[in-house]
Amino acid sequence: MDGVLVEGFGKLMYWVSWGLLLFSLFAFVDSAIRREDAYRAADKQTKAFWLIILGLAAAVNFFMGILDFLPIIGLIATIVYVVDVRPALRQVSGGGRRWPRGRGSSSDGPYGPFNGR
After folding, report:
1. Of the residues 25, 34, 62, 73, which has the maximum number of CB atoms within 10 A of its CB?
2. Using one digit for the tens of pLDDT, what is the confidence trace for 72-97?
3. Comparing C-alpha atoms, which of 42, 52, 55 is closest to residue 85?
């Protein structure tokens, strides 16, 4: 019975570690595709700073187990980027959610362009 529990816990930690790795890789790629001037405009450190932090977080998640101390720090840094920095960058860059309308001008209403009539 103990072997089944240990094996189940091991599988759970395996999938959690993969999830954290994918989460940190998503944040790293997202930070890489953002413009440098957006970081300065949002007053959120620099692009190089976030690339280094998130790259280290992804590397630590890849090479270390989930129960170590450094992956938890990497997870915190990734959460800070996704929850705080990314929305600020999207707001500064004008990359807010436009779905389901698509990419229209600022004078577009919910049913199409506003003509002023």
Report:
1. 34
2. 999 999 999 999 999 999 998 876 55
3. 42
